[in-house]
Design a protein that fits this description.
Layout lengths: L1 E2 H6 L9 H13 L3 H6 L4 E2 L1 H15 L4 H5 L1 E4 L2 E4 L12 H10 L5 E6 L5 H9 L3 E7 L2 H14 L4 E5 L11 E6 L32 H9 L4 E10 L5 H10 L3 E7 L5 E7 L3
Parallel strand pairs: 5-6, 5-8, 6-7, 8-9
Antiparallel strand pairs: 1-2, 3-4, 9-11, 10-11
Helix pairs in contact: 2-4, 6-7
Length: about 280
């Protein structure tokens, strides 16, 4: 017989920077309980079947596989989202895009576009906060579109539509009050691509040319044709790319160009407004 406390104590996830949290999340999932249950009942016996499931989870995590992919879910904003290896794992820093959008755009009826939606995280978070908004979520990867649609349906958000599109290609002349994107922004030769969780994430959602700016250039260049006068463009980017992205926005005629810092103090998003 094995108890909860013993399983957590012997998890052996030393290579993970969040070893204790990983062990708790994986064990809670294996036994079908919450993390708080583990702390409340540390002496409870775990069945041999559940212990075996937990051992399998630990083996995968020791191999570097992200916890979110092992469990098939990840929290973002106030939502629990299904995730899969063909999409990026939503990260807390990206919530800065949601916060900034809610600050800039009144919660009155508005048209909002999320480019490269992946799991649907940004679009669904905004739609859940602002039922009067009509949100369009685009992704070029069919599996990602299907995943975002499953998340939309499970959350019951009728003010979101999920479409297949390579950036703006499926939109014709449609215009929006607000466009957001967390596009690929890592340089092709960046050594971080060979480390940590990103080893398991799709390179197509991470890499954007030699300097990491290819997709950002495209979005900034094409966004004015899809923004209403006075509309905002909000972009996530790399920790050292803010000056380059602000220059792109200014060069394309955007005003009120600025950047915002993430939880680590890095300039993580940049934004600009189309003149009225």
């Amino acid at each position: 017989m094995t108890i909860i406390a013993s399983l957590l104590r012997n998890a052996q996830l030393a290579d993970s920077p969040t070893a204790r949290l990983d062990a708790e999340l994986l064990l809670a999932a294996a036994i079908g309980k919450s993390r708080s249950y583990l702390h409340t009942w540390p002496e409870r016996i775990v069945s041999s079947e559940d212990a075996q499931t937990y051992a399998g989870y630990l083996h995968r995590r020791r191999g570097g596989e992200p916890v979110a992919y092992i469990l098939g879910q990840q929290g973002f904003w106030k939502l629990d989202l299904e995730v899969a290896p063909h999409t990026l794992i939503p990260r807390p820093d990206t919530e800065l895009l949601v916060e900034t959008a809610l600050e800039l755009q009144p919660a009155t009826p508005a048209k909002v576009l999320d480019l490269g939606t992946g799991t649907g995280a940004i679009a669904l978070a905004l739609a859940s906060e602002c039922p009067a908004w009509q949100v369009t979520a685009l992704d070029r990867v069919e599996e990602a579109v299907a995943l975002a649609e499953r998340n939309r349906q499970r959350l019951g958000l009728g003010n979101v539509k999920v479409l297949t599109s390579h950036w703006f290609s499926a939109l014709d002349a449609e215009r929006f009050d607000l466009i957001l994107s967390n596009p690929p922004y890592i340089a092709a030769e960046d050594p971080h691509l060979a480390a940590g969780d990103v080893r398991f994430e799709p390179s197509s959602a991470l890499v954007a040319g030699a300097d990491g700016l290819d997709d950002l250039r495209l979005i900034v260049g094409q966004a004015p044709a899809h923004l209403l006068p006075g509309g905002w463009l909000l972009l996530e980017h790399g920790y050292d790319q803010a000056p380059a992205v602000r220059a792109l926005l200014t060069g394309q005629g955007f005003i009120e160009v600025a950047s915002r810092k993430d939880l680590g103090g890095h300039e993580r998003i940049s934004l600009g407004r189309l003149p009225c």
